[in-house]
Design goal:
The protein has 142 residues and is α+β, with helices and mostly antiparallel strands. The chain is built from 2 helices and 8 strands; from the N terminus they run H-E-E-E-E-H-E-E-E-E.
């Protein structure tokens, strides 16, 4: 009598645990080859046609705007950047937006110091119907 009940509990627990997080929900970071200190989820691919990168020789500033395309739950992608940017020294300064478009503003380094310079990073997440269509990563290095 006890064995069928124990087996039922075990199976119910396994279903509940396995149903919580699927492979589709997990966003695995990988370094962005264009910006080594910014991770991009493995499911997202670089869109070279929309992206650009240039340097101002007068001010010595570098500007980059890179687009990545893929699919992931909107909220999970926002959490991905909240957690992964600080790993590389970025500090979240501000979040703007709501469902459909959210922009996260990050800072890194000390722009007042001429030795270390500083960077401003902006991650914009665009969504249609709750899944992400594209990520825009902008960066200014001083």
């Amino acid at each position: 009598m006890m064995k069928p009940f124990a087996l039922t509990l075990l199976l119910a627990g396994a279903v509940m645990c396995c149903g919580c997080v699927t492979n589709e929900d997990v966003l695995v970071p990988r370094p962005c080859s264009q910006m080594r200190d910014v991770d991009v989820p493995t499911r997202f691919t670089f869109d070279a046609m929309q992206s650009f990168d240039f340097a101002d020789m007068t001010t010595k500033e570098r500007f980059a705007v890179h687009y990545f395309r893929g699919k992931a739950p909107f909220d999970r992608l926002i959490d991905f950047y909240r957690k992964n940017m600080p790993v590389h020294g970025w500090r979240l300064r501000q979040e703007v937006g709501s469902r459909g478009l959210k922009t996260l503003y990050f800072k890194k380094g000390n722009p007042e110091s001429s030795k270390t310079g500083g960077s401003t990073g902006i991650v914009a997440v665009f969504s249609t119907d709750g899944t992400v269509g594209s990520i825009q990563i902008s960066r200014i290095e001083q």
